[in-house]
Design goal:
This protein is of the alpha+beta class and about 220 residues long. About 30% of the residues lie in helices and about 30% in strands. The strands form 2 sheets. Strands 4, 5, 6, 7, 8, 9, 10 and 11 form an 8-stranded antiparallel beta sheet that branches. Strands 1-2-3 form a 3-stranded antiparallel beta sheet, with no helix packed on it.
Length: about 220
């Protein structure tokens, strides 16, 4: 199961990596917190009522997974390593939520991740669609086995419009992991939601959370 988790973290590393450098984030930035099973973030004026019993990954564990993912993504590609390192300074993991605790004895652990990246220095990134275009380009530089199914749709979360990209990824033992990336530019940040699942039952549980998002 750990390999499956790391495979997903590799993909998320394209958007967000861990770094010891000073973060390029505003002083008022809020990583958010969870109280009574509701994740709240004052900076993005956002609330997410979470599915009961799901595992909220502690920050230290997120950092450890991201470090492993960054190393596996970059490999011997020094240019990609530099790009990922630059991303890490601009980005923040807000929420890593899994149905089961990491390492649980399950075929696949469905997840919802919320990640933000400061894109103020990139004036050409004007929409979530622009951001997802660059995300896909970075993915093509890795050795990941993935296939973009649809990159043209948008969807509404909490009354706000997000660009959407659907992707299939081959995990260990040829397991097909389905993912949806949702991105929107908000307050100079690309605000991203990413869900991962392998069947309709898992997808439904994740969709129920997305439908409860409030802005």
């Amino acid at each position: 199961m750990k390999k499956g988790v790391l495979l997903l973290i590799i993909v998320f590393t394209i958007i967000r990596c861990v770094s010891d450098k000073k973060k390029d984030l505003p002083e008022a930035f809020d990583y958010g917190n969870t109280v009574d099973n509701i994740y709240s973030n004052a900076y993005f004026d956002m609330k997410i009522p979470l599915n009961k019993g799901w595992y909220i990954t502690p920050k230290a564990q997120m950092d450890a997974l991201n470090k492993q993912g960054q190393s596996m993504v970059a490999g011997d590609n020094s240019n990609l390593e530099k790009a990922l390192e630059a991303n890490s300074v601009r980005s923040a993991s807000l929420l890593y939520l899994y149905k089961y605790e990491l390492g649980a004895a399950v075929t696949f652990n469905p997840s919802l991740l919320v990640i933000a990246e400061n894109v103020k220095q990139f004036p050409d990134v004007k929409s979530g669609k622009d951001y997802l275009f660059h995300t896909e380009n970075l993915l093509t530089q890795t050795t990941m086995d993935f296939n973009v199914i649809d990159r043209s749709k948008s969807r509404t979360l909490g009354g706000n419009t997000f660009s959407s990209m659907h992707m299939d990824m081959v995990a260990t033992n040829d397991l097909i992991v389905k993912q949806e990336y949702m991105s929107r530019i908000e307050k100079g940040f690309a605000l991203n939601f990413i869900i991962s699942y392998i069947n309709e039952e898992q997808k439904l549980e994740l969709e129920q959370m997305l439908e409860r998002i409030e802005f």
